[in-house]
Design goal:
The protein is mainly alpha-helical. Helix content is about 60%, strand content about 0%. The protein has four helices and no strands. It has helices spanning about 20-45, 55-70, 85-105, 105-110. Helix 1 crosses helix 3 and helix 2 runs antiparallel to helix 3 (about 85-105). The N and C termini lie far apart (about 50 Å).
């Protein structure tokens, strides 16, 4: 069996590749968060289908992110990506939408 840890420092039951085990689950959690936040954004924008997305929706998304990341002391919600996995997923989803919209590849992804 492969050695993934230092036997002289740790007395584990058996060799497990914990970085892979945890990393895979983190990746699945990130994907799930992105899917959930995409659904939340669609509900917020009152969209049934991303094919109906417009530049007005894009502006609403950007304004929402500005509000969420603006410090509470400055009138925003004060979220930080480092402390909220769901805010990070929302931010990432919006940033992908913005990028795809400006690149002209929106239709390729969402029809």
């Amino acid at each position: 069996m492969a050695e993934f840890y230092d036997d002289s420092k740790f007395n584990l039951k058996q060799d497990w590749y914990w970085s892979k085990v945890i990393g895979k689950r983190d990746e699945l959690q990130y994907q799930e968060n992105e899917e959930e936040m995409s659904e939340v954004l669609m509900e917020y924008l009152e969209l049934d289908d991303l094919a109906d997305f417009t530049e007005e929706h894009l502006a609403q998304c950007e304004e929402l992110v500005r509000y969420l990341e603006t410090p509470y002391s400055e009138g925003g919600a004060g979220y930080e990506m480092e402390t909220s996995a769901h805010f990070y997923a929302l931010w990432y989803t919006v940033s992908q939408w913005v990028e795809q919209w400006h690149e002209g590849s929106w239709q390729d992804y969402y029809g």
